[in-house]
Design goal:
By secondary structure, the chain is α+β, with helices and mostly antiparallel strands. It is built from 18 helices and 19 strands. The strands form four sheets. It has a nine-stranded antiparallel β-sheet, sandwiched between helices. Strands 16-15-19-18-17 form a five-stranded antiparallel β-sheet. A three-stranded antiparallel β-sheet has the order 4-8-6.
């Protein structure tokens, strides 16, 4: 009996312990399982609340919004696909999920993907000099003998100067040329050594698209249709230079207008891209979402590549910020650190902004497309809401700031003058907020506050020289204005019989060159106005202005030659000689200004 009671007691103890364990498991396991079932965005928004969150966000900014289309992808599935606002505010035409937007520079991802497809097939090598893939003698303006590779084109560090908006865009379908011809005709100068400086280059990516044409034997848009759009069933997207391979799609694009950030209509907002692989794609956000989903396949299946390793390679870091372990580019895809590491690309065109951001690890990504130029509420704000704050990688130890200029600049074109006026001064505190600062012996060599380009230091001496160079130009213009006023005052006094008739044997030339000087000032103002955002002028609209500048140079040379001849052959009063000679000096200064700043090309 004692043994049975003891055994019974032991059983009761064991039963109590097991019951306690089961109770703990009953409490803990469901909680843990529930925690695993709640999937979130990188910023910890439950996916079940994502659409509601986006709706609320858009509602709070409705009065600042034209149209915005948002697509969210998770594990290969579309979990949000919504459009808000108006495709055409004036006609009150609402946007919907079939609204066609401009991809703008997101189109470049199609170039990088196409290149990697041909790399996978062994037809291209990322580290081979691209001249091996191009017709002989293709380049005429290379400054350095260093090879330029496809990787350089993906990283925007082949060293080319930037080109003017007039060279990058055009407005008439009739101006469309074969891609290779456009690249030859618009070859920029190489101003940096390859691999030394990142300067966003539409020309470089367009060149990569042309290499795809050369190797595949197809026009780029046909290659993309066959190898990307068709396999992904992207039936509402085109990257034809003018969209005419899908006339219905081009028509739908023409039904949406473009606006500024403050909702002002941008006239003539349908522009065409000269190097079209860099920015010509048009389509729905839903279709762009299909492309995004293909970049994050949920299993080993892969539509874009035969081998999953090729996709992994394309999405792996290929360029770091100088001197750091901070990723910058993954074969053309921009690497950006939000609350999680992401890959992304942005696009801006006349009247349109677009962005695609994704986290390959969690297989979550978003597409945002708007019909507003350089839009920020969704382009930056909504992305921040979903992905969390952007994290900067700062490296700053220098004692002070300095002057800096974008490496993405023209060096032999008329816009160089206007870009030089954008030189910015940064304090040490401001430098500390940038992504990356590269230093050597305590001196800042370059800075980067966007992944797409570096900013290079400009000496104070050069800044002062630029400022000083404007002083004689201003004086020359003031003299021309004064000379004209003096002449007209003299003519008025003559009409009133207060003074005698002014000598006219040379005055008409003197009057003409000073009138031309004032007209030159007005012409430069017109050029600057045309170049001002969001105009994106066609080169044809600027040609007459640039021709006038060149004509002024010819007139200035002619005036100086004629002035020397007249001074030797004729006798003039001292005051007249001073006025004529000063007009000649003024004309010479203005002509030198035009030639020095390439204001005629």
């Amino acid at each position: 009996m004692q043994m049975n009671r003891g055994h019974h007691t032991v059983n009761k103890v064991i039963a109590c312990v097991l019951s306690f364990i089961f109770i703990i498991m009953a409490i803990a396991v469901p909680a843990h399982a529930e925690e695993k079932r709640v999937e979130t965005t990188p910023s910890r928004i439950p996916l079940s609340k994502l659409e509601e969150t986006i709706d609320a966000y858009v509602a709070s900014y409705e009065k600042y919004t034209a149209a915005v289309s948002v697509v969210a992808i998770k594990d290969g599935e579309t979990i949000v696909n919504k459009a808000y606002g108006y495709a055409d505010i004036e006609k009150q035409r609402k946007a919907d999920t079939s609204t066609v937007f401009e991809w703008a520079s997101i189109s470049k991802l199609l170039v990088y993907t196409s290149v990697m497809q041909l790399v996978e097939q062994g037809k291209l090598d990322l580290d081979t000099d691209i001249q091996e893939y191009l017709p002989e003698g293709f380049f005429k303006k290379l400054r350095y003998n260093d090879p330029i590779t496809l990787m350089n084109l993906m990283h925007h560090n082949a060293g080319w100067e930037d080109q003017t908006a007039a060279e990058v865009f055009y407005y008439s379908e009739n101006e469309t040329l074969e891609l290779g011809d456009k690249l030859r005709k618009n070859e920029p100068k190489q101003i940096y050594k390859p691999n030394s400086v990142v300067g966003y280059s539409n020309y470089g990516v367009g060149l990569a698209g042309y290499i795809v044409e050369e190797i595949s034997g197809q026009p780029f848009y046909e290659y993309v249709n066959q190898h990307i759009f068709e396999p992904l069933h992207m039936n509402d997207t085109s990257i034809h230079p003018t969209g005419q391979d899908h006339p219905d799609l081009a028509q739908r694009r023409n039904e949406i207008e473009g606006y500024t950030k403050d909702l002002k209509l941008i006239p003539e907002n349908r522009v065409y891209v000269t190097f079209y692989p860099t920015g010509a794609a048009i389509g729905t956000a839903e279709d762009l979402g299909k492309f995004l989903a293909a970049l994050m396949p949920v299993d080993d299946s892969n539509v874009l590549f035969k081998n999953r390793d090729t996709l992994n390679e394309m999405l792996s870091t290929s360029l770091y910020y100088d001197g750091t372990s901070t990723p910058r580019f993954a074969h053309g895809f921009v690497e950006m650190e939000y609350w999680v590491p992401t890959l992304m690309h942005e696009g801006n065109l006349k009247g349109f902004s677009s962005k695609v951001v994704f986290d390959p690890a969690s297989k979550f990504g978003m597409v945002v497309m708007t019909n507003q130029s350089f839009e920020e509420i969704y382009y930056y704000g909504l992305i921040k809401e979903i992905f969390g704050d952007n994290v900067n990688s700062n490296r700053i130890t220098s004692e002070g700031g300095g002057y800096f200029q974008s490496a993405r600049r023209p060096a032999a074109r008329f816009t160089d003058l206007f870009r030089q006026l954008d030189i910015t001064k940064f304090s040490k505190a401001e430098l500390s907020s940038l992504y990356n600062v590269v230093e050597h012996n305590g001196e800042v060599e370059k800075i980067s506050f966007t992944p797409y380009m570096d900013y290079l230091p400009v000496s104070k001496w050069k800044v002062n020289l630029i400022v000083i160079s404007f002083i004689p130009v201003i004086l020359a213009i003031l003299f021309s204005v004064t000379a004209l006023l003096v002449y007209f005052i003299r003519m008025l006094l003559y009409k009133l019989n207060i003074r005698g008739n002014p000598r006219i044997d040379f005055n008409k030339y003197h009057l003409a060159i000073n009138f031309a000087g004032v007209a030159l000032l007005l012409n430069l103002f017109i050029i600057q106005t045309k170049l001002r955002f969001p105009n994106y002028p066609a080169y044809s609209s600027l040609r007459i202005n640039l021709m006038f500048n060149l004509l002024y140079v010819v007139l200035a040379v002619a005036y100086l030659g004629f002035l020397i001849y007249k001074l030797r052959k004729s006798s003039y009063g001292k005051k007249q000689k001073v006025m004529y000679i000063m007009s000649g000096i003024s004309a010479l200064i203005l002509a030198a200004f035009i030639v020095g700043w390439n204001l005629y090309v």
